[in-house]
């Protein structure tokens, strides 16, 4: 993918100052949503530059420094949890984006914005769905926003050590829900994201089992043989282990109501991947199989939970 193709087109059309805008942290239960705006020197060589979600933490941190040092101008801003509760997450994201653009020291001729919703920044703009994988400017913004938010959540973890924010960064993981049920919410939690918290742990587990059942049925129809369900090791758990004629497949199942705030796959982070791989190695050590191992994610979107008549199932092969 040529990350400079959009910028090249705009340069040829006469635009001189091109800004990329992206956000990080719409989906978590706690903390602010961050946004960044970046104006890069046209065509600058930033090896490994890509969508922040595709990069390791180490690579993001390295690129963060390179982007900050080389950018013509950049701005990083956020909307906190109180603004998210007061405005709703979409409007709060727009607020953070506008703050980031407004903080630039150079007025952009045009802003390239990741997504399909217009935040109405002060300059001309173009919306690009999946822009963090199509535009160098947006990719740079995605890295600044992601690293800035992760750093904040790691710092705030020192104030709230019981919640392990440094591990889940505020996302709705099992660990996070368990800590919430044990200790209650903090002042940085988004209250509008915590409805029915008291029953959430059991509700999530029940929905999780329903999601795994749907994934099981889906895979059987695709001619996979089920080898194990909910396989546990001291490292973690794998939802489903299946195989076909070519692969032994370790499957992580993620069920969500929608992808409005974040794709389900985004909750399978690097730490989760390491645990799944370690657990898969435990399985393989006791099951001598010549099939090639593969790691898949199955996303299930069910707006009405178990009452959803036709849940959307997305099967991501070789997810990591």
Task: Kindly summarize this structure in a few lines.
With 320 residues, this protein is an alpha/beta fold. It has nine helices and ten strands. Strand 7 and strand 8 form a beta hairpin.
Reported for the largest beta sheet, the result is: 5 strands, mixed
Shape: globular
The CA-CA distance between the termini, in Å, is: 19 Å
Alpha-beta classification: alpha/beta
What share of residues is helical? 25-40%
CATH topology of the largest domain: Nucleotidyltransferase, domain 5
The level 1 CATH classification of the largest domain is: Alpha Beta
Beta content comes to 15-25%
Spans of 5+ residues with little confidence (pLDDT < 50)? Answer: 198-202
Q: What is the count of DSSP helices, taking H or I runs of 4+ residues?
A: 9
Report the order of strands and helices: HEEHEHHEEHHHHEEEHEE
Average of per-residue pLDDT values: 91
CATH architecture of the largest domain, please? 2-Layer Sandwich
How many discrete domains? 2
């Amino acid at each position: 993918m040529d990350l400079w193709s959009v910028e090249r087109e705009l340069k040829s059309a006469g635009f001189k100052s091109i800004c990329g805008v992206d956000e990080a942290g719409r989906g978590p239960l706690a903390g602010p949503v961050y946004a960044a705006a970046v104006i890069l020197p046209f065509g600058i060589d930033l090896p490994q530059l890509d969508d922040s979600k595709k990069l390791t933490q180490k690579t993001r941190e390295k690129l963060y420094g390179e982007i900050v040092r080389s950018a013509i101008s950049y701005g990083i801003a956020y909307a906190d949890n109180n603004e998210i509760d007061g405005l709703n997450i979409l409007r709060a994201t727009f607020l953070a984006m506008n703050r980031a653009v407004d903080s630039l020291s150079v007025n952009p001729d045009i802003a390239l914005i990741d997504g399909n919703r217009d935040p109405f920044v002060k300059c001309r703009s173009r919306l690009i769905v999946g822009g963090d994988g199509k535009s160098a400017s947006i990719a740079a913004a995605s890295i600044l926003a992601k690293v800035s938010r992760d750093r904040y959540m790691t710092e705030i973890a020192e104030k709230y050590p019981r919640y392990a924010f440094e591990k889940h960064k505020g996302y709705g993981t099992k660990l996070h829900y368990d800590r919430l049920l044990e200790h209650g919410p903090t002042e940085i939690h988004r209250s509008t994201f915590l409805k029915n918290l008291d029953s959430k742990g059991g509700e999530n587990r029940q929905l999780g089992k329903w999601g795994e059942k749907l994934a099981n049925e889906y895979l059987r129809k695709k001619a996979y043989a089920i080898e194990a369900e909910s396989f546990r090791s001291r490292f973690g758990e794998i939802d489903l282990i299946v195989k076909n004629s070519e692969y032994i497949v370790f499957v992580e199942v993620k069920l969500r109501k929608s992808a409005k705030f974040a794709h389900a796959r985004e909750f399978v982070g690097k730490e989760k991947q390491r645990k799944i791989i370690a657990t898969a190695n435990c399985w393989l050590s006791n099951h001598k199989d010549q099939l090639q191992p593969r790691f898949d994610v199955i996303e299930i979107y069910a707006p009405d939970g178990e009452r959803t008549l036709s849940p959307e199932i997305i099967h991501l092969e070789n997810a990591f």
